[in-house]
Amino acid sequence: MSKWICGVCGYIYDEAREGTAFGDLPEGWTCPLCRAGKDAFSPVREEAPAPRPASPVVISEDMRQLSAGELSAVCSNLARGCEKQYKEEEAVLFRELADFFAAGAPPVDEADLGSVLELIRRDLEAGYPALSAAAREVGDRGTQRICVWGEKVTRMLQSLLQRYQKEGEAFLRDTQVWVCSVCGFVYVGDAPPELCPVCKVPAWKFDKVEGRG
What are the distances in angstroms from CA 166 to CA 28, 55, 161, 197? Predict the structure, then answer.
């Protein structure tokens, strides 16, 4: 019998305790804490692997200018960071910049679900590992924490999108979508979780997504 760990919230499914092999769980089974799908789980290693030496930081000479959409996302995140620091004046300015860049962003071609999942896969397999390694190299603990939270949230988004891809609109019928205002964790259910599975803030920190068709 083996154990499986959720890559989003850390919940461990113990086959010996539960009495059912993980592979025998139904396709629609979800994590009892964060409701991530089975694909978010991986086997628990009995022995922790030896730490790998930090990869050298390589700065590419092929620098490029950020697009309007990327600048909008950066400014939006900076606005949210200012809100957390109770710097409302700065938050307002960053929100204005985010709106300005968003208005100038061209529509994304072929923005289908498959292409979004592919971008998420690249982030999880290459983007976060590279950023985390660079942060460890320079001892940037803040960025390392961002990577931990960001990767967990991204894995949850991947799980939700994969379920939506399989089930369609039925997946979101007669339920609600909630987003943690601190870390961005997305939760599907009638009410938000008592504690965010990622950053551990209480339920009142969740915002309900309104205006869904």
Answer: 10, 38, 9, 24
pLDDT digits (tens, 9 = 90+) for 45-98: 865 555 555 555 555 555 668 888 888 888 887 887 787 777 889 989 999 999
Residue 157, token pair as written in the block: 């988004």
> Which residue type occupies 157?
L
Other C-beta atoms closer than 10 Å to the C-beta of 58 total 9
3-state SS of the chain is CCEEEECCCCCEEEHHHHCCCHHHCCCCCECCCCCCEHHHEEECCCCCCCCCCCCCCCCCCCCCCCCHHHHHHHHHHHHHHHHHCCCHHHHHHHHHHHHHHHHCCCCCCCCCHHHHHHHHHHHHHHHHHHHHHHHHHHCCHHHHHHHHHHHHHHHHHHHHHHHHHHHHHHHHCCCEEEEECCCCCEEEECCCCCECCCCCCEHHHEEECCCCC
pTM metric for this prediction: 0.71
Sign of CA dihedral 167, 169, 172, 177: positive
Query: Hunting for tokens 């083996």 — which residue is that?
Result: 2
State how far the alpha carbon of 11 is from the alpha carbons of 33, 40, 95, 168, 197, in Å: 7, 11, 36, 27, 9
Q: What angle do CA 64, 132, 82 make, to 5 degrees?
A: 75
